[in-house]
Specification:
Layout (H helix, E strand, L loop, with lengths): L5 H8 L3 E4 L11 E2 L5 E2 L4 H12 L3 E5 L5 H10 L3 E3 L5 H12 L6 E5 L5 H4 L4 E4 L5 H4 L4 E2 L8 H13 L2 H6 L4
Parallel strand pairs: 1-4, 1-6, 4-5, 6-7, 7-8
Antiparallel strand pairs: 2-3
Helix pairs in contact: 1-7, 2-7
């Protein structure tokens, strides 16, 4: 477990909804396109299991993405992500709608992103997080930057951080060694 600053501890302890971008967060940011136009994305199983563990503690999960790739919808369904906003060009408006739908205040939201298009949500939520490969301007607005890379465990790191701050991580992990 990591040592959390008092500010990070307080922000993460308040989280009731984790919101994620997809490309450059749940994936490494590369988009593979087949000749027929089909997009191929690669997701990391550590991120997926972290999301399931986080959801089991009562924290809601959501995706707000500018793209509309069928593979993301499939992955969101596999992971039980309760709120999926695709093809979104105005993330600020989607965020307001999502908060109303989820019944949460801004300080109860965490958002993990990688580019300037994520800033309308990041600058409003309680826990703005970026991946290390994020655009430099986006990094300036993050309260936390993951050590793990996008598409390679960054989301799991954030899930663990939230659970640690909320006091649910140790019990969740101990279930696997009983």
């Amino acid at each position: 477990m990591q040592t959390l600053t008092p500010e990070l501890q307080a922000r993460a302890a308040a989280v009731k909804l984790l919101i994620m971008d997809v490309d450059g967060v749940l994936t490494d940011g590369r988009i593979f396109i087949r000749d027929n136009g089909e997009e191929i994305k690669s997701f990391h199983t550590l991120d997926g299991h972290g999301l399931k563990m986080l959801q089991a503690t009562g924290v809601q999960t959501a995706i707000i993405t500018g793209r509309n790739a069928p593979s993301v919808g499939v992955r969101a369904k596999q992971l039980g992500i309760g709120h999926y906003y695709k093809g979104i060009h105005n993330k600020r408006a989607a965020y307001a709608q999502l908060r109303a739908e989820a019944g949460v205040e801004e300080h109860e939201c965490a958002f993990i992103g990688d580019d300037v298009v994520d800033l309308p949500v990041m600058v409003r939520c309680g826990l703005p997080v970026a991946v290390p490969e994020a655009h430099w301007f986006t990094l300036q607005h993050a309260a936390y930057v993951t050590q793990k890379s996008a598409g390679n465990g960054a989301v799991r790191e954030l899930c663990d951080l939230i659970m640690q701050a909320q006091g649910t991580l140790e019990a969740a992990l101990q279930e696997y060694v009983k």
